[in-house]
Amino acid sequence: MKDLSKDAIERYSRHIVMPEIGLEGQEKLNRAAVLVVGVGGLGSAQAIYLAAAGVGRIGLIDDDQVALSNLQRQVIYRNKDVGRKKIEAAREHMKELNPYVEIDSYDTLLVSDNAMDICAPYDIILDGSDNFGTRYLINDVSILQNKPNVYGSIHRFEGQISVFGIPGEPCYRCLYPYPPAPGEIESCAVGGVFGALPGIVGSLQVIETIKLITGQGMNLSGRLLLIDTLKMKYDEIKIDRNEQCPVCGDNPVITAPINYDEFCGLDEDTKFIEEADRHGISPESLNQALRDGENIKLIDIREQTETRICRIDKAENFPAGRYEELFTYIKDDDQVVLYCRSGIRSARLVNQLKTRGNKNTRHLIGGILAWIECIDPEQPKY
Description:
alpha/beta, Rossmann fold, Oxidized Rhodanese, domain 1, eight-stranded mixed sheet
């Protein structure tokens, strides 16, 4: 990057007058390259504040499009951006904020086949992902490439932040050696996320990034910062390096990105979802069966807060806490159709019911989102 111009010095003057940053620190920011993985809730705040801070080169990786439900928390986007590629809309707004920054856009997912190449040009990786496979991938690549990984995660009212990848200090695998079983942790679409929380966590990730670039302050390496915004409480726990860690330990066995879907159990999860879909029922077929008065027990297995957004008439509600009751309620010869938001939870539950001997249970392929798309477009999606 070129030296700071007169206009740039004025732009960053509130940084430059701080002795902890100064002109030298701002020039370090100008020369730095940072990759943002996922331009969603966390990535929105990360991208905006990295650009505002004058980080010279910023990479954005995301293959998603802006949805209306994103706007509650993904503040880099505007109503006019709905339907656009996230990386395109984000790049446009970042350039409007700061034309001095260079922005790289990767319209793809970060996977084991491309992660090493995509991450290679950057000094620091910011984790804005929303799934465990990508978090383990980011962690392992950061260790393999000897660069920091600024971690953040959010759920409902709570967030976590730490720094991994510092040589000789703990990594994400030291904190979480194994991922939870598929479906054990609610997604944001199911459990929700407090709108302002990604702004807090994403901004703190940028603060950690700026400190790493400028060499100032004490970073969160070896510490996990826990935020509970409902109680407005901040806690901290110490993370110890695991000498037996397969990636950062004394005798590492992971020397290249692995199959993270297999590691996180997603391959097996995908298999029984595909199996459930093969024997499932489409929205069109279910709608016809209901119109014909077929004797179907239609079961909504979502949480009650979800059913208030949209629902299928005449469905009975058995949320997660009532599954044992549901198992008793369904008889072996009942014709049952389960549905959830997108078909993932219902596919898992169909699998459980079949192992209990119920062979006539199907699920609605694509969940209520597919139902709204095909049958009842007047209902809102979420």
